[in-house]
Amino acid sequence: MRNLIVTKAVAFIKQIAKETDLSHRTRNLLRAFFVAAILAAHGLDVPMVAAQKTPPPQSSSIRIATGSGVLALPQVRRPMFDIRSFGAVSNGPALKNQAAINAAIDAAAKAGGGTVVIPAGTFKTYSIRLKSNVGLHFASKDSIIKAGVPGTGAN
After folding, report:
1. Per-residue model confidence as pLDDT tens digits over 26-65
2. For residue 151, is it left (φ>0), alpha (ψ between -120 and 50) or beta?
3. Residue 89 forms part of a structural domain
4. Same-domain pairing of 36 and 91
5. Strand, coil or helix: what is 104?
6. What's the alpha-carbon Rg for the chain, to the nearest Å?
7. Residue ranges with strand state E in 52-120
8. pTM beyond 0.70, yes or no
9. Which terminal residue of the chain, N or C, has fewer Cβ atoms less than 10 Å from its own Cβ?
10. How far apart are CA 41 and CA 34, in angstroms?
């Protein structure tokens, strides 16, 4: 049934394209629209792509962004590198936090990979340069990385 509907829709679009001066792109768009509309009208829904599937229930309290295409949270990779161990301070100066966060990322990269932990607090910073095999883990919902704005006082 589905193949018959698609074949008839394609034939219809070809007929319209011969009678009018439509670009190839416009013909394809119209074809897709008509096929989807006819299939939906007959209750023959088109399968959803992976990014639209409902993610599996999570045991974690962290929610996955809708429409992100992520179906499961990644596993935390060890070793762990807490940015406070490298000198980051909650509500501290952005330059100091930038140096500490990037030092933690560098240390994780030199270890062959790992996870940089952002603990609870607000850490103002400038540029963060992520590297391969290094992940960021926000330890709590109160873990915040805030963009420092140059020229707005003590950074």
Report:
1. 766 666 666 666 666 666 554 444 333 444 444 455 556 6
2. left
3. yes
4. no
5. helix
6. 26
7. 80-82, 114-118
8. no
9. N
10. 10
